[in-house]
Design goal:
155 residues, 49% helix, Multidrug-efflux Transporter Regulator, Chain: A, Domain 2, 2 domains, 3-stranded antiparallel β-sheet
Length: 155
């Protein structure tokens, strides 16, 4: 997939075009049956889930963010996947080889589906949260947590 074909940046729109999108955000809270209307007046209902995704895209664009649309079946190289997860390529390959993330081969090269990266990232985040919660509970139990702490420079 060529990212440039599936990427839209807020800077590609004029100020006027961006301003025209703002009412869509308010419409999201009032519209029960969203639809698209063609220039000939033809109206086509769209599923609520798709409408909510469109609202999210508009909100991000109004915030100046670029949007890239990727199917979950998009295959990433090990370097691109490591970049997505914020880790070194070598550490990522170690995760692959220890079967923590599914992968397939294209010739001699490893490829990872985007959906598998999302699953791994979600599990990793849940595990991190649980570990932090356990650490906090241990610190609190041992009386090392002081909720009245004001910092080193406090009187």
């Amino acid at each position: 997939m060529k990212t440039a074909e599936n990427r839209v940046d807020a800077s590609q729109l004029t100020e006027k075009e961006l301003a025209m999108l703002k009412p869509l955000i308010q419409l999201a809270h009032t519209s029960k049956h969203p639809s698209l209307r063609g220039s000939d007046g033809t109206e086509i209902p769209i599923p609520v889930a798709l409408f909510q995704m469109l609202i999210k895209v508009v909100q991000d664009m109004l915030a100046g963010k670029a949007i890239v649309l990727l199917p979950e079946s998009e295959a990433f190289t090990t370097q691109a996947a490591a970049n997505y997860l914020g880790m070194s390529r070598q550490h990522f390959v170690t995760l692959l080889e220890s079967n923590q993330i599914p992968f397939h081969r294209v010739g001699t090269h490893r490829r990872v589906y985007f959906k598998d990266l999302q699953i791994y990232a979600s599990k990793r985040d849940l595990d991190r949260r649980a570990n932090l919660d356990q650490l906090f509970q241990r610190v609190k139990k041992e009386g090392l947590y002081d909720s009245d702490y004001k910092g080193d420079d406090a009187g």
